[in-house]
Design brief:
Length: about 240
């Protein structure tokens, strides 16, 4: 498994804005956001629909270009990278969980999960071992050879989360990762992500309305009209934490 280095500040935005020129009035989806994320954080972005949570995640992950401002990841300004350099950077460093799942329709659950590992040239043995482990953890072993069309929304969501985690990225950007999941399944996924956060120092940023995620987060950032309204570090109750052994 790949381990992160020990540098503390891994994500920084400065005066970050995204404005959509639609209709009579421009829409400030993200409005002059200054943000710093330290390695190993478990952070939730919260706020009403339309507050800019997903747009901010997409800007941090290089999926969208800002109207103004900058994003640094590991001291690299990604806002000026070429399209191909951004693709390579994301592949190497970031795991994404999309609200719309974005699974590849012609691939099975197993093939979707191992897809990023295949692009990163993991050996077949490594891919098989990692996928089997993840399928077991998300309770999808019986659906290993099913394509997305044969999976429920919740099952597709679990596969999407497993795909994001498969290659052990430094950062995971997760847009509503527990949507369409029952409490038991959501809890298992959150346990898995909390374990990787604790054991591998993997950094997680969630966009969410889900109180189950918010209660697990150690930092909660509230967005309103594209701007940060509050930024709170909270104690996670012992009952919500994983055991240390």
């Amino acid at each position: 498994m790949k381990k992160s280095n020990n540098s503390s500040l891994v994500i920084k935005t400065n005066n970050l804005s995204k404005i959509y020129e639609t209709g009579a009035e421009p829409v400030k989806a993200v409005n002059q956001v200054d943000l710093e994320i330290q390695r190993g954080e478990f952070t939730a972005l919260v706020g009403p629909s339309g507050s800019g949570k997903t747009t901010l995640l997409n800007l941090i992950g290089g999926l969208d270009k800002p109207t103004s401002g900058k994003v640094w990841i590991n001291n690299m300004d990604i806002t000026h990278l070429s399209k191909n350099d951004l693709i390579r950077f994301r592949l190497k460093n970031i795991g994404f969980v999309f609200q719309a799942y974005n699974l590849i329709p012609v691939l099975t659950a197993t093939e979707n999960i191992e897809f990023v590992m295949l692009l990163q040239r993991y050996s077949k043995k490594e891919r098989q071992a990692r996928v089997q482990q993840l399928l077991k953890e998300i309770g999808m072993e019986e659906k290993a050879h099913s394509r997305p069309a044969k999976l429920s929304g919740g099952q597709q969501q679990r596969v999407a989360v497993a795909r994001a985690l498969a290659s052990m990225p430094q950062f995971v950007l997760a847009d509503e990762p527990t949507a369409n999941l029952d409490s038991k399944t959501a809890g298992k996924l959150l346990d898995m992500m909390a374990r990787l956060n604790r054991e591998e120092n993997m950094t997680f940023i969630f966009s969410t309305h889900d109180q189950r995620v918010i209660q697990r987060a150690r930092r909660v950032i509230t967005l309103v009209d594209g701007a940060i309204e509050s930024d709170v570090t909270q104690e996670v109750e012992k009952s919500r934490r994983l055991p240390t052994n």
